[in-house]
Predict the structure.
Amino acid sequence: MHFHKFEKIWLIVGSGTLIVFLLIIGINAFAMGHTPPSEDEILNPREVDTTPPFDEPGLKKVSENEYELVMVAQAFTFESVKDLKIPKGATVHFKVTSKDVVHGFQIPKTNVNMMITPGHVNSITHTFDETGQFLILCNEYCGVGHQAMGVPLEVIE
Amino acid sequence: MMNPTVDRADAKLSMAHIYVAFAAVLLGGIAGLLQTLVRSGSIQLPAGIGYYQLLTAHGVLLALIFTTYFIIGFFYAGMSRTLGKFYDQPYRMGWLGFVVMTLGTLLTTVMILLNEGTVLYTFYAPLKASPLFYIGLTFFIIGTWLAGGAMCNHYYISKKVSKEKLSPLFAFMAVMTMVLWFVATIGVAVSVIFQFIPWSLGWVDGINILLSRTLFWYFGHPLVYFWLLPAYVCWYVIIPEIIGGKIFSDALARLSFVLFLLFSIPVGFHHQLLESGISPFWKFLQVVLTFMVIVPSLMTAFSLFATFELAGRKKGATGLFGWFKKLPWKDARFFAPMVGMLIFVPAGAGGIINASNQMNQIVHNTLWVTGHFHLTVASSVALTFFGIAYWLIPHLTGRVLTGRMHSLANLQTILWAIGMFFMSGAMHTVGLLGAPRRTAYTTYQEHPDALGWIPYEVTMAAGGSILFIAILLLMFILTDLAFFALKGKEDFPIGTVADRAEKTPIILENWRLWLTVATVLILVAYTVPVVHMIEHAPPSSPGFKFW
């Protein structure tokens, strides 16, 4: 099929740009470890309360300045510890599942954002380099109280 | 056989769909206005109406009912115009489709009004609506299949009778869009019929959530192309005639539609990038395919601007951009779709951001996404559909689009663009700050982050109010054109192909070939991850009614 000369240039430049974009995304994902949250672990969504580690949600120190935060999402809160306080510079591994419907898990001002589907575990890691007030919120509609589903998280000195 | 006007019986069938489409715009628009006012904390809803109930109504009425009815009505008219009066069998099938679709629509709408289906238009399990909500959706989809069947049947008979190897461009594009719809809706139909209905009736006690979401998005992304392609039909086939130009190339127009069929379906994972249970490799593969579907849009942009420039130069334009001034800016049939086209530039760029793995992490499920599709479907597509309605309705009702209505329609377009600038602009910005989509008014116990979003939400409400005024103006214009405007003859513009354009290769209309390639791509993109979802599934989930 015949393409006009200008159209050839336009399509080569356009497609070339797309290929560059894809290379950046691909290298960033697979060579630099920035793949999206894609945990493969499953559990019985009706037995979350008796399935470790979700039978004891909360903050656990793994090593110096490294923590695992196990949370259970349910309408309309994230269950873990009462006052979430994390020292500045700490790396936190979030490990979350849902007891009921699909929820979202997002912390504004950070890259933390993932879906929580019942029956599945999802996890993401973030290092909090600055002190301040943060907010863990649900960003997937989960029912009439969805807008109330958020818990504060404080990063302290 | 080309007809200068749409046959009167076919016109009735077409108009029936268009009435439903614009009734949905009015109702959906009211819901949208109320949502922006609630979200900004300006009002509280009376009479026990829920925010999420309105949100469900807004999504279903505008994204599903308005678009689908308008598209089908537009295609019936255009096929009657370019292929000739509908043969008896497809004509009856068309009316049957209308009845079945409308029964489904009424059933689903009633369930939403009764607060039995407040699950939003994506109806993610395990939120469980009344079985009648899902049965209504099933009827709606079966109705659209009958409509698509009617068009394919009419196309098939017409092609047999005329013995032409290539059908008119409009008919080809309409059939391609409906074929895309058939392939896409298989996913959602399988999910609703085999997963949702038995589960909501209590025949089974659980549902595979990940599988249901995957089947939904197998449908959900081609759905957006089902909205976009009819706008492209207008841009490719109708706009050249309105501006006094020619279709740049019939072959390239067909090629772009073939590419849409191939690449708009195996890409649903880019809506599920942040989910468990799908490996990063398969997510990335579908991101690559998502980027492929940008190529036919690049081709479209080139063809359209080539048409504009050639038409302008024919009218005596000089210099690099002189042709731009020669475009008929005062003609509402051109102005509304043209503004839609221009908005598609930032809208498409936003889409590339959304599909990019890492950037999606920032914007996923924030108001950014809502801002994005209010530029694509609610501006580019909607303005083009309005632009079509301005001449199509009087053409079908035997009236004319007068000068005064051209001016009012242009005012409507300007109001729409201004309203959307504020609403969508604020949504994009506050989304980057982290404000979630699909969420009622909230400050999360006076959290400083959430308090910072409120000024943007007020801007959204201001934009939404301007948009609502634009909807009222649209209703006035369309009512006038349907019932009160001067009697006469309004043209149904159909472009002709430029003389210099090359002959179209027959292979572009080889359905068996393109459907085979599309199937192979779908199987490659989905087989392994879907088998994994079924074999490695957690115990199923019970349903919940949290509203």
